[in-house]
């Protein structure tokens, strides 16, 4: 590329980054050395910056923007303990993205099927769904009839929100069928901006399935002993999955859910423990305890849709803003 083209290309990348300041911080994140924002401006204008330096800026910005585009398409939640708020967090994050105009697919792979019962009770009650023959039942993605991947037909909750449900039938899938699930999902995932996977509270095949097809993971924990232990166990699994099975998997962060206002002493101890152990991997914003959560889940609504007061008590907007910025930043290796 000649000098002028290089600078034009840099300008485009800086525009996409949003500002010369943002571009400077992206370059610093890659090289450890960050130009000032005016140095980037000068580089675009062509004064006193070598083509080599401009190319380095370009490399850093391209890498980040490519990662960002690739990033966060398939988001999963996890904790090996049940009842900590995985489904709650997933529903609120997903429906928030839908409210911003994004097209969302929820994929429920927890045989307890809380997600489908909450968001699509009509589907859960259909007799062909109960038998597993409905095209929006995920058992067919795990177990194809022939050698060709099964193409699921998601159930439309609304124009922007579709779901593939599950039931106890998926409880016995084998490790091999994880790849079937991935191939089947590949056939439809380009139709969506995001796929949100609800995963079961156990360290078995289904959790492996979720981790092996996700790009981004949110760990949900309550500030109490068993839930924190679940996080420790899971982090080890995530590291192994990143190394051996799915190098694209990134951890968005650990959300602490159901914090009381004010927190009890034990809650404070466990929040501090999580922060000491995992630092900036822990979301700055907590989610708080409120009875409205159970009510909103029963209605299949996010807390924001349910009521402004409930959303405020829950800490919805702090969480959802941080969720989006973590998604945009691209997540972490652990
Ligand atoms: N922040 C919260 N405040 C009050 N209740 C909550 C909160 N988060 C979750 N719950 C309730 O706790 C129960 C378990 O939550 P759920 O999201 O189903 O957990 P998991 O998916 O981890 O099993 C549900 O009844 C849910 O409504
Ligand atoms: Mg759940």
From TrEMBL:
<dbReference type="Pfam" id="PF13614">
    <property type="entry name" value="AAA_31"/>
</dbReference>
<dbReference type="InterPro" id="IPR050678">
    <property type="entry name" value="DNA_Partitioning_ATPase"/>
</dbReference>
<dbReference type="InterPro" id="IPR027417">
    <property type="entry name" value="P-loop_NTPase"/>
</dbReference>
<dbReference type="InterPro" id="IPR025669">
    <property type="entry name" value="AAA_dom"/>
</dbReference>
<feature type="domain" description="AAA">
    <location>
        <begin position="73"/>
        <end position="250"/>
    </location>
</feature>
<protein>
    <submittedName>
        <fullName>Sporulation initiation inhibitor Soj</fullName>
    </submittedName>
</protein>
């Amino acid at each position: 590329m000649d000098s002028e083209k290089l600078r034009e290309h840099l300008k485009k990348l800086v525009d996409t980054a949003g500002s010369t300041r943002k571009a400077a911080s992206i370059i610093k994140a890659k090289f450890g050395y960050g130009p000032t924002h005016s140095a980037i401006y000068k580089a675009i204008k062509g004064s006193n910056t070598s083509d080599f330096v401009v190319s380095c800026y370009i490399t850093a910005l391209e890498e980040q923007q490519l990662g960002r585009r690739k990033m966060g398409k398939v988001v999963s939640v996890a904790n090996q303990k049940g009842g900590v708020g995985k489904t709650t967090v997933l529903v609120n994050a997903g429906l928030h993205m839908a409210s911003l105009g994004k097209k969302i697919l929820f994929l429920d792979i927890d045989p307890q099927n809380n997600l489908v019962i909450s968001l699509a009770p009509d589907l859960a009650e259909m007799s062909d769904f109960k038998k597993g023959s409905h095209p929006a039942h995920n058992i067919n993605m795990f177990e194809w009839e022939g050698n060709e991947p099964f193409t699921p037909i998601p159930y439309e909750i609304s124009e922007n929100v579709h779901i593939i449900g599950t039931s106890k039938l998926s409880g016995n899938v084998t490790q091999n069928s994880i790849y079937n699930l991935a191939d089947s999902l590949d056939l439809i995932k380009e139709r969506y901006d995001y796929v949100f996977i609800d995963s079961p509270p156990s360290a078995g095949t289904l959790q492996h399935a979720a981790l092996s097809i996700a790009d981004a993971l949110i760990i949900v924990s309550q500030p109490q002993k068993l839930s924190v232990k679940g996080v420790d166990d899971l982090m080890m699994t995530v590291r192994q999955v990143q190394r051996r099975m799915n190098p694209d998997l990134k951890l968005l962060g650990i959300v602490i859910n159901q914090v009381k206002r004010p927190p009890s002493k034990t809650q404070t101890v466990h929040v501090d423990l999580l922060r000491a152990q995992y630092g900036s991997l822990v979301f700055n914003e907590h989610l708080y305890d409120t009875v409205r959560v159970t009510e909103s889940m029963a209605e299949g609504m996010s807390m924001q849709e349910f009521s402004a007061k409930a959303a405020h008590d829950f800490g919805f907007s702090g969480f959802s803003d941080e969720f989006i910025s973590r998604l945009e930043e691209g997540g972490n290796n652990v």
